[in-house]
Amino acid sequence: MSQYLKDIDAVASVVKGDSTWSAINPESALRMRLQNRFKTGLDIAKYTAAVMRKDMAEYDADTSKYTQSLGCWHGFIGQQKLISIKKHFGNTDKRYLYLSGWMVAALRSEFGPLPDQSMHEKTSVPALIEELYTFLKQADAWELNHLFRDLDAAREKGDKAAEGEIISKIDGFETHIVPIIADIDAGFGNEEATYLLAKKMIEAGACCIQLENQVSDEKQCGHQDGKVTVPHADFLAKINAVRYAFLELGVDDGVIVARTDSLGAGLTKQIAVTNKPGDLGDQYNSFLDGDYISSAEDIQNGDVVIKADGKLKKVKRLASGLFCFKEGTGIDRVVLDCVTSLQNGADLLWIETEKPHVGQIAEMVNRIREQVPNAKLVYNNSPSFNWTLNFRQQVFDDWAAEGKDVSKFDRARLMSADYDGSDLCEEADARIRSFQRDAAREAGIFHHLITLPTYHTAALSTDNLAKGYFGDEGMLAYVAGVQRREIRQSIATVRHQDMAGSNIGDDHKEYFSGEAALKAGGKDNTMGQFDNI
């Protein structure tokens, strides 16, 4: 007997226990229950944390089993992404969602579009997590609703084979709920503020929180200038705050991603507290730029002097009050950041880089793994990189080093369409295509994400539609460029009333009101024009 039929019997035993519930259909009640598997955000966080931990273990055993995500700025975008994944690949295995602080700032703030500098309302972050999961839960309800309708149709026809097949699909239904890696920026304040926001994010469903080591009130986008880092003790306090939030809420296997911006950050706001030579604070301070002095006469009014390496160092400070790191110390600081984070509660790393280069990432990860062998990364396949130019230049440099003739190419102009189709550019595209596989294998990248792809796809698709619709194409721009393609590609939104829940509502009305239900999906619903296409 299938699980579906067993569950109907279980609900029936409850319904029959109250004589006033005679109007309740046990199968209808079960269908509603199946369409709402996750009752709270904490249910989601616990479920997805287990999924993510399983995936991390599988990656440790086989680096080809890396995971991926796309950043989504609206629940509908996240929903359509997961529906598409299930349609094309049959399951959602190792596919996540990413919640980008950049896109929250640019698209979800009540202040209007903002740069990625933690100026948006912190509450907009858990609100988006909740929204994403609301839409993913609705995707579950939508897909199951179609299966339930197909089951009713098979029963009406007396087709037992089809009925059994559909019940089997219901029993084996895979949810659209997947892990979200959620960006908490630099914590939006001190460690208590970080804890309070982390709780809200976890209660909304987040099983994985990404935290960066920038100064909260000086936070910059990882791909902008002017980044300012904090001493390790400050960052570790916030990692602890997030872990306490997970444990308080019972998400014992919640995942923390520790992001370091040290590769591109040349400034710090604070000199670290140090109690003895070689401790963590002393190591942080050792990277500070400055001059060793031998006399108090070398100190001017307002200078800051520290003791380092047994000598006095006058550290370099800007007019802003920020202190400078020595040039060329970025990689060493990244390695220290990563090792320290993993040894103090973080589960995964995020190294923000200035270009997508497998060798550069591997250089840092290999050094980290000398101390933490199972270190692995979440990596930003950022739209801030000019991927075409970067990889064409990488190929150019490799070929030049190998002695190949590259005289027909101008390295500075490799982005030019003049070079499209050349052997160099085809090799660059091949490397882009394999970048995620290569980096997962060679550079310890467990999770590949694109932070804000749907920001760009929304702009691109809107530009194409506007260009045609307001131009000579008129309505054909929509019909040929959107609707006809939806039909040809079997994209469910072509039946937008159904996608928005109209059929689910109709079925609920029938559960509640029986034959008296006033339904929207009758013969006059124009969505019927898309049936049987």
TrEMBL record:
GO terms for molecular function: isocitrate lyase activity. The lineage of its organism: Bacteria, Pseudomonadati, Pseudomonadota, Gammaproteobacteria, Oceanospirillales. Keywords: Lyase, Metal-binding. It holds the Pfam family ICL. PANTHER family: BIFUNCTIONAL GLYOXYLATE CYCLE PROTEIN, ISOCITRATE LYASE/MALATE SYNTHASE. It comes from the Bacteria. This is Isocitrate lyase. It catalyses: D-threo-isocitrate = glyoxylate + succinate. The keyword Phosphoprotein does not apply. InterPro entries: ICL/PEPM, Isocitrate_lyase, Pyrv/PenolPyrv_kinase-like_dom, Pyrv_kinase-like_dom_sf.
